[in-house]
Each structure stands twice: as C-alpha cells, then as structure tokens.
Specification:
Elements (H helix, E strand, L loop, with lengths): L9 H16 L3 H9 L12 H11 L3 H8 L4 H10 L7 H8 L5 H10 L7 H8 L5 H17 L6 H13 L5 H15 L3 H15 L4 H14 L2 H7 L5
C-alpha cells in the first residue's frame, strides 16, 4: 500500500499552479504530436518542448520542495521539469524508488536518470538494485542510469564499469524493447570512457552478437555499430584497429 501523500503548503500550491499555467500556455499541437511520434505515452501531457521546459527551469532555479510537489501532479512536463530543478544532494533513495516506480515512458525515465539521478550519491546503488527489478521501466532506469554515469561520473575509475558488464550480461537476455535498448545504451557509453573499457566492451559486444538468443544478439550488434565508429574510438582514447 502506498504511503499517504503529504499535504502541500498553500504557498507551494500557488507555485505549482503558476508552473502548470506557464506550461499549459506554451503547449502546441506540434509538441503534443511529437510525444506520439517519439513513442512517449503519458496519461497527462500538455505538449511542451524540452527547450521550453529548460527555459522555465532556469527561471525557477533549484527547489527541492517544489520538485516534489510538481512530481505529484502527474503531468508529464511537470515531471520532466523536476529533473532540472530538484537538488541532487537532497534526493533520497526512497524518493528515487518512488519516482522510478511512476515511470511510464522512456522519456521521463531517461531524462530523470541523465539530469538528476546520476548526480546523487545513491546512483550506483540504484543501478545494482533496479537491474534486478521485474518492472520494464524500473529495469530500463538501471541501465539509463548506468549510461548516464558512464558519461558524467568523472571520479570513478574503470573498475565499477568493468564490474557492471556482469549486470549487462544478465539483462541482455531481456527481450523487452525499452530494456534491451537501455542495456545497449549503457554498453556503448561504457565503451567510450577509456581505452581499456573500449576494448572490454567491444569483446563483450561481439560475444553477445554471436549469441543464439535474439535479445543478446540484438544488443551486441547494436552496441558494436557504435563502438566501432571512429568517433567512439577517438572519444575513448583507444587505438583504431
């Protein structure tokens, strides 16, 4: 059973209404159509471009309490906004779990992981925890978060990313569309971090590509296309074959 939702202070209610009004005023038929075009399903959506959401985020600044209240509105754009206005240092593991279980499309999943969750101190723990979850978007979040860490974590060395290849191996057999795409994304991003990780990722992707199972074979081939591109090789610092 879900915990009862906390009441929102009146001043915060005013801020939330102001944000929703701003978003509604900037909704367009084209942006609503783009949601369908990009395969984003959301129960409540105005149809506002990400660029406009980021404009509003700059106006608001960081505000943890407002982010929590915006999430509870259920509006797609309001939830997207939280990734830019919440304060990573104040995000708790419980909040991450709660929000993650609300994910219902790849857009909200990837944006939260790429712009907020990967900046928290709980990111690595959630990669491991969510990678074992049966929910499609929770599992997707594990690998979207791993991909985000591969791009943004400047403190960790190669070791945690090498170890995470075992998570990728276990999840590569999952043939659900959003999971396998997340797994491939993580493998590709890991391969771009360093020469050693590039070599390990290429070998790993080739092994997956040779699998007799469809899902890991797809992941391996999809990852190899990117890992063998000159731009990826240069980014990783690897030597071209």
């Amino acid at each position: 059973m879900k915990a009862p939702r906390k009441s929102v202070p009146k001043n915060l209610q005013v801020e939330v209404k102001s944000v929703l009004d701003w978003l509604e005023e900037r909704s367009t038929p084209q942006d609503r159509a783009n949601l369908t075009r990009f395969g984003i399903t959301a129960g409540k959506a105005f149809g506002v471009s990400v660029s406009n959401i980021q404009v509003l985020a700059k106006i608001i600044g960081r505000n943890h309490a407002l982010a929590a209240a915006l999430w509870e509105t259920g509006w797609y754009e309001a939830r997207m906004l939280t990734s830019f206005v919440d304060e990573p240092s104040l995000v708790t593991p419980e909040q991450m779990d709660h929000w993650c279980r609300d994910f219902d499309n790849w857009g909200i999943c990837d944006t939260l992981c790429f712009h907020l969750f990967d900046r928290t101190q709980h990111a690595w723990a959630k990669v491991h925890e969510w990678s074992e979850d049966p929910g499609e978007f929770v599992k997707r979040a594990a690998f979207a978060l791993l991909a985000s860490l591969a791009g943004h974590d400047k403190k960790s060395g190669d070791a945690p990313f090498t170890a995470s290849l075992l998570l990728i191996e276990r999840a590569a057999t999952d043939d659900r569309n959003f999971v396998k795409k997340g797994v491939s994304w993580a493998l590709r991003r890991i391969g771009g971090r360093s020469p050693a990780l590039h070599a390990a990722s290429v070998l790993f992707a080739r092994r997956l590509a040779d699998s007799t199972q469809a899902a890991p074979r797809w992941v391996g081939r999809d990852a190899l296309r990117d890992l063998t591109r000159p731009t990826t090789i240069r980014r990783s610092g690897a030597t071209a074959p």
